[in-house]
Fold each of these.
Amino acid sequence: MSLSEIRKRVESKTRISRDEIAWLYHNAAMDDLSQLAKVVRERFHLSGEATYLMMAIVNYTNICVAKCDYCSFYRLPGAADGYLLSLDQVSRKIESLIALGGTLVGFNGGFHPDLHIEDYAELFHSIHQRFPQTAFFEMTVAEFLFSCNVSRVSVEEGATILHQAGTRWVTGGGAEVLDDAFRRRHSPSKYSVAEFFRAQKAILAAGMGSTATMVIGFDETLDERLNHLESLRDFQDQTNGALPSFLCWTYKPDNNDLGGEEISTEEYLRWLALSRIYLDNIPNIRTSVLTKNKDALLGLCYGANDFDLPTEDEVTQMAGAVVSHDFDSILATGRELGFALRYREPYPLSSGPYIKDSQNP
Ligand code: SF4
């Protein structure tokens, strides 16, 4: 295996194997990764352009029974500082985002043992009435899966309930590293990889959209990271490219049981580039201002084409992230790198590329 062989394969749009990604991970220089990622990026996007939007992550509850050792956010039921926001409190957070000029809200909370899928549906329905102009990512796949279990409904039934409440998007959040050994080590109560993808399929089959995410920098092995990318690429193949985007961010080690050190920006950029090269069936690769601040914009040179300007997120802030409202300065970093930046609309829901496979629900 050599760099020139892999470059020829990338340039001829030949699918890159996980062994080749592992080779690049160990051997390629940063410039080489940037160039290879650029080749794949240009299949989908103009080279000097990137897009962004402003969004808030509304953490409606920090009560959670999953006890992931890498989490700094959760509080067990009964904790003095546990909370569950009311509809009015959630609404005030959305109003704050709108006042800043933002257009997208992601909901992210804990595995609250008393919240049924109907409770979420009721909340989201009320929010849609109050904020018809705002786009929402309502729940992560992980929260959705847990609330279906609490409610004793299948993920297919749960997805129908959400869809009927008007939910259009769920995010692929809560994925971290999609590898069962990793999950057993750090969050054995959360889900298995098979359960995660079954929930993703149910969400898509009900007519909602979803996304792909990943978090790196815990103690995961390269093999575990590659398992994550491989399962995502396979899922995209199986669903005719149903997920429009892949967002990768970095683990923050403050205030949790796992602890450790945050990985370097170079390590993050290397993985972003490798993800772009390997995930040849996901058009949008997103870089994380939430955890990398201005450095995230460097990701535009390593295969990313899109990013958020986050206005709030307690989950990552509790773990050491700093959310900056100096949006002009963040955007200036992207422009100084030579990119024309355009505020974008939320992704449109596709007209339904995903056909439910009754043999493999
Ligand atoms: S990462 Fe999510 S599921 Fe895990 S403990 Fe934290 S809030 Fe709960």
Amino acid sequence: MKLLRENVKFIIVHQSATKKIETSFEKIKKFHLYQGMGNIAYHYFIEASGRLRKGRNESTCGTHTKASQMNSKSLGICLAGEFNNEDPEPTQLKTLASLLNNLLTKYKISKDKVLGHREVYNSATECPGDSLNEWLVSWREQK
Ligand SMILES: [Zn+2]
């Protein structure tokens, strides 16, 4: 499904829910292909090393957030990790902050439209884990 630029109103942040050190872009993509998603579910993926990997094209809907029909109005970013039990690497957060700033400018989105998956109305998930969601909350408060 096409995702028109003017329809991108939110950015949703996810965790892979697997130990960051054991998780690569290729591994998650393979898993999502196996599940029949046709591609990795996200537009961007940030590995434990902080390396940014490109998933879906930004002009294609993701399959990362069913709740509130978010897939048709958002981009999805996933960090390798299980953030109820481990913290994101500083280098992952550096990559995330810079990616978010670029996307906010490109799509003219304000910081309050960057949500953790669990913050999406009607979602029932732990994603993106406690420590990553706490980072998001404080990042949104920064000027
Ligand atoms: Zn998620």
